[in-house]
Amino acid sequence: MKGAGKKKAAGKKKATATGGEAVKETPGKERGVGKPKAGEIPERILYPCYFDAGLARGQGRRVPRGMAVAGPTLDDLERAVKRCGIRHRKEPRSHPAHWFRREGRIVAEWKGTKESLLKKVAAKLEVKA
């Protein structure tokens, strides 16, 4: 067998353009991905399932049941984000655990923690009948 006794290295070394010391990279990850550049506001993703009172925490709810609502839609979530005065955009993407629902998501510009954003939006969330 070819290479049966050899172990793969945890990361690979990437040569630099200046010929300096090589930088070790983690496999499958690019440097700087997911981090905002200087002067950019970080984006947070919000799915309607984060605010659904019918779901358990293990099923995707991210706010306390007392702040959650029954069956929120993407439009309900967008109205709540607008009431908070947060810049955002709608995207036709689904939560990975609920891919079959095709409920969409909101991408909001937010400097604070995601938890603080979730609680702020949940306080303004109302479901239209």
Description:
The protein is α+β, with helices and mostly antiparallel strands and 129 residues long. It has a domain at 43-124: Signal recognition particle, SRP19-like subunit (Phenylalanyl-tRNA Synthetase, Chain B, domain 1, 2-Layer Sandwich). The protein contains 2 helices and 5 strands; from the N terminus they run βββαββα. Strands 3-5-4 form a 3-stranded antiparallel beta sheet, with helices on one face. A two-stranded antiparallel ribbon has the order 1-2. 16% of the residues are buried. Mean pLDDT is 80; it is low at 25-33.
What is the H/E order? EEEHEEH
Query: In this structure, how is the largest beta sheet organized?
Result: 3 strands, antiparallel
Highest-level CATH class of the domain at 43-124:
Alpha Beta
Query: What is the architecture of the domain at 43-124 at the second tier of CATH?
Result: 2-Layer Sandwich
Shape label: globular
Provide the structure class: alpha+beta
Radius of gyration: 21 Å
What does the average pLDDT come to? 80
CATH homologous superfamily (4th level) name of the domain at 43-124 = Signal recognition particle, SRP19-like subunit
User: Total helix count?
Assistant: 2
